[in-house]
Design goal:
By secondary structure, this protein is mainly α. The protein folds into two domains: 64 residues, Winged helix-like DNA-binding domain superfamily/Winged helix DNA-binding domain (Arc Repressor Mutant, subunit A), CATH 1.10.10; 43 residues. It has five helices and two strands, in the order H-H-H-E-E-H-H. It has a two-stranded antiparallel sheet. The longest helix is centred in the C-terminal third of the chain and has 25 residues.
Length: 124
């Protein structure tokens, strides 16, 4: 699992890490049942406090993305399928909002944006 954090970002470190783990789960890079690194190990790898990683893991567990099991570790949850679907939709919606804001700032019309989206969607 590759996580890249930026000290220059406006987003707090814990949120950068959390978002990237959620992204990896939603994309299937982290599979159901897969064990995440220990809090200490991930903190050492990322050069952040163990408290930061604990907060990330607490939030992920609260949101149903992982389960913590004593003696085993933090495991990607089979979880709530609807929660995962909704999270995927939210991720796409956020990226679309960013795209719309950029398009508006650059003077691109909704029709031009739709045309670009259709072309790009068909290429994939």
């Amino acid at each position: 699992m590759k996580i890249v954090i930026s000290n220059t970002s406006d987003m707090p470190l814990y949120k950068q890490i959390e978002d990237q783990i959620i992204d990896a789960i939603l994309k299937g890079d982290l599979s159901e049942g897969e064990t995440l690194p220990s809090i200490r190990s991930l903190a050492n790898d990322l050069k952040v406090s163990v408290l930061t990683i604990r907060r990330v893991y607490d939030d992920l567990e609260k949101d149903g993305f992982v389960n913590r099991q004593v003696g085993i570790g933090t495991i990607v949850s089979a979880g709530n399928v609807e929660l995962l679907r909704d999270s995927k939709r939210r991720l796409v919606e956020q990226k679309m909002l960013d795209m719309i804001q950029t398009a508006k700032a650059l003077g691109i019309t909704q029709q031009e944006l739709n045309d670009m989206m259709n072309i790009l969607f068909e290429e994939e």
